[in-house]
Each structure stands twice: as C-alpha cells, then as structure tokens.
Specification:
An 8-stranded mixed sheet has the order 5-4-3-2-1-6-8-7, sandwiched between helices. The mean pLDDT is about 95. The protein contains 14 helices and 14 strands. The protein folds into 2 domains: about 140 residues, Nucleotidyltransferase, domain 5; about 190 residues, ATPase, nucleotide binding domain (Nucleotidyltransferase, domain 5, 2-Layer Sandwich). With about 400 residues, it is α/β, with parallel strands linked by helices. The structure holds adenosine-5'-diphosphate (ADP). The site of adenosine-5'-diphosphate (ADP) has 13 residues, from helix 10 and helix 12.
Length: about 400
C-alpha cells in the first residue's frame, strides 16, 4: 500500500510517498512558494534520481497537490500502483483527539475549531486536506495530530493554576507538541529494547529547531515541557522556552513594545539566536562557541541546563527510568549536547560511553556503569504518520 504523507505550511507542502508494510520511502519532495504570486517551486527525489528545484504553476494547495500526484504517477508509481491513502500532519487536535482519525466532515470541523489554538498551523494543514479531497476524490485521508500522544496527561500535569474558567471556557491548558515524534521514539525504544510497550518508562528529549521533553510512563505521556503553545519549555533555536510570564507584561507596559512584537521576540528572536546573536542553528552556535564566542557558549550552557532540569524532574517522577532517550536534529547529532545535559545531572549517575561519539549510531550510548541507560533513537515523524494512516485505513 502507498501512503502519501503530507505536511502543509501556509505556502509550502512537504510530501513523502511511503510503501507499507515494507516501510520504504518511494519518493519525497517539497513544493514551496505556493500562492505567493509568481511560480511555485517543486523538487522531488526517488531512487537514485534527484530532480532539481524547478518552477511550476501552483497558486493554491489544490494545484500543488494535483501536481505532486501527477509527478508521482509519471515518475514513481508503476502500472497498477496508486496512492491508497493520504496521511496528514495536523498540529493541534485540542482535547478532541487522543489518536489519529479518518477524516470526514465532522473531523474536519473539529480541526477547524482547534485552529483557535494554532492559528498559524491548523488552517494550512486543513488546506492540504481539502486539496487532497479535491484532487483525489474517494481516496481516504487521515489526520495525525502533534498533540494526540500527550492527551493521556493527568489534569495535575496539564492544568495551569489560573482561574478555572479559562480552562473550561477557553481551553487554556498544557497540550504539548511533537507528539508524533515522542510516540515514534517510545515505540522504537520498546521494539529495540524488547520491552512491552505498556511497561516502557522513559524520558524522551526531542531536540530540534523546536525542542520538547516528555515523561513516558507505561508507554504513555504523563507530562511534557511544551504548553498551550510550542513556546514553553527548554531553550530552543529562536524560542525563549520558559520565562517569567511577567516579562511579557513588563515589555508591553514598561517598554512600550506592542503585543505582536513581543510575540515575535519570544518566538522568532530569542533562544540560541537571541542570546548568541550568531544564529538559530546549533551547528553555527557550536562553531562560534568553539571559536571563543562567550554568548554562544553561554546559550549552550543555558540550553543543556534547561533540558537537564526537565530530565531530572521527570526521572524523579518515574518509579524506575528505563532510559533517557535523545532524538531529532540536535539530540541525534550533537554528542556534545548529550554530554552537557548528562553532565548537569550529577545526582543521576549518568555515564556516557564510547558509542556516544559514534556518528549515526542508534541504541544505547551510555557506559555499562551508568545508573540510567542513555539512548539515541532517530525520529521519523513521516513514517509514524504513514503507520498510523495504514493502521486506520487497513481496518
Ligand atoms: P526541525 O525541528 O526543524 O525538524 P531538526 O530536528 O532537523 O529540526 O533539527 C535541526 C537542528 O539540528 C539545528 O539546530 C541543527 O543545527 C541541528 N543539527 C543537525 N545536525 C547537527 C550536527 N551534526 N551537530 C549539531 N547539531 C546538528
């Protein structure tokens, strides 16, 4: 079965055609600059072939999806093969979705309602869904939510100590994000370690441009570092992570900065970029720190410390932690960041081994003497979306 995994932004569409149950990627690519005036740009790779970025006519998501489907039919799918289902990344599922869902009118309406909580993301995700429904009538569409894995959090973890009506009437609570990645890594840990999924107790550190830490007990999320929005938690590429909320008021009331500008400062100009004044990209910041840049070094220390504080508190919530697992761009690739995080956790008796320095290694990277094993597991959100879609449409 071929599943086309779709991840739509407001002007972009990333796709992967995944064959299941083989779990092989038949093609992947990207359409950019959709609806910005002028041509959109399309690129795709399959097998040994890498098509360079080229201009196409796609003034909306429907035209972009149609183009992608035709390109796949022409170059990738063989006689008798077809796209059997679409799997869509949807950022916010609110409290409505504990799991992925086959999309019908009711589900689409719910996704639209959840758009209040993710006004930049859900409308773009919906545009992708509607585009697929129009371009390929009759082919099932499945929504896979970034928030769904975290819906098992108990109220004591997801409530904010605000007047209760803000939760009841406005849905203000912790939702958490990167759930597809945290779920994938949790399942992968179960498979790789041989532990039954419902006995897995781990702390997952998804460290990418955006980062979140999740406490998994019995295979389920019991707490996570992101909140109502992806701004909360640890220090990230351009996001501040946790700050005293009164800073926001101080900026507005005492410094006269407009709310929209404060939003931009916290989401786009803070984190690695804000403190280092070098870059939002970990590789650049590490490079600058090695070259002696004190602010770059400082933000790396702050990042490791902020991650360690979450890991430490989550480990202490679990009866026994099977592993601390690192994933995503930084978590998988930066041996240094793993060392710094573990170095901050003096009380946990963590000891990294030689494997920590082995590039591309997946599995346990701690020394046998480490009191808690430390693992690296590459995430694969597209595969997780394809697997969820496959599961639902095969029923
Ligand atoms: P996204 O959240 O956009 O999916 P990724 O998971 O791809 O992001 O992570 C991107 C981050 O990973 C960037 O900060 C990048 O610098 C970092 N990264 C990628 N490769 C390396 C590496 N070899 N060493 C250190 N950091 C890396």
């Amino acid at each position: 079965m071929f599943i086309l995994v779709i991840n739509c932004g407001s002007s972009s569409l990333k796709f992967q055609l995944i064959s299941l149950p083989e779990r092989t990627v038949a093609a992947k690519g990207l359409v950019e600059r959709i609806g910005l005036g002028g041509d959109a740009m399309f690129k795709m790779s399959y097998g040994e072939t890498k098509l360079p970025s080229s201009p196409i006519k796609a003034s909306n998501h429907t035209e972009a999806v149609s183009y992608v489907i035709e390109a796949l039919k022409k170059d990738v799918l063989k006689e008798g093969q077809k796209i059997d289902a679409f799997g869509h990344r949807v950022v916010h599922g609110g409290e409505k979705f504990f799991s992925s869902a086959v999309i019908d009118d009711d589900v689409l309406k719910c996704i639209e309602e959840c758009g209040k909580l993710a006004p930049l993301h859900n409308p773009a995700n919906m545009a992708g869904i509607v585009a697929c429904q129009k371009a390929a009538p009759g082919v099932p569409n499945v929504a896979v939510f970034d928030t769904a894995f975290h819906q098992t959090m108990p109220p004591k973890a997801f409530q904010y100590a605000l007047p209760y009506k803000f939760y009841k009437e406005n849905g203000i609570r912790r939702y958490g994000f990167h759930g597809t990645s945290h779920k994938f890594v949790t399942r992968a840990y179960a498979e790789m370690s041989g532990k039954p999924l419902d006995e897995v107790n781990i702390v997952v550190c998804h460290l990418g441009n955006g980062s979140s830490i999740t406490c998994v007990k019995g295979g389920k999320c019991v707490d996570t570092s992101m909140g109502l929005t992806p701004l909360a938690g640890v220090v990230m590429g351009t996001r501040s992570g946790d700050i005293d909320p009164a800073i926001v008021l101080y900026m507005i009331e005492n410094l006269g900065i407009a709310p929209a500008e404060v939003n931009k400062i916290l989401n786009k100009q803070s984190g690695f970029l804000g403190v280092s004044e070098v870059s939002s990209d970990m590789r650049d910041v590490e490079g600058a720190a090695e070259g002696g840049n004190a602010q770059a070094k400082l933000v790396l220390e702050m990042t490791a410390y902020s991650i360690a504080k979450y890991v430490g508190s989550y480990v202490s919530l679990l009866p026994k932690t099977d592993a601390i697992v690192f994933t995503a761009g930084i978590g998988e690739n930066s041996a240094e960041m793993r060392e710094w995080v573990c170095g901050n956790l003096a009380g946990l008796g963590l000891e990294l081994g030689e494997k920590n320095r082995e590039r591309g290694f997946a599995g346990c990277v701690s020394a046998p003497s480490s009191k808690i094993p430390v693992w690296v597991i590459p995430t694969n959100e597209e595969l997780m979306i394809a697997l969820e879609t496959y599961e639902l449409v095969s029923k």
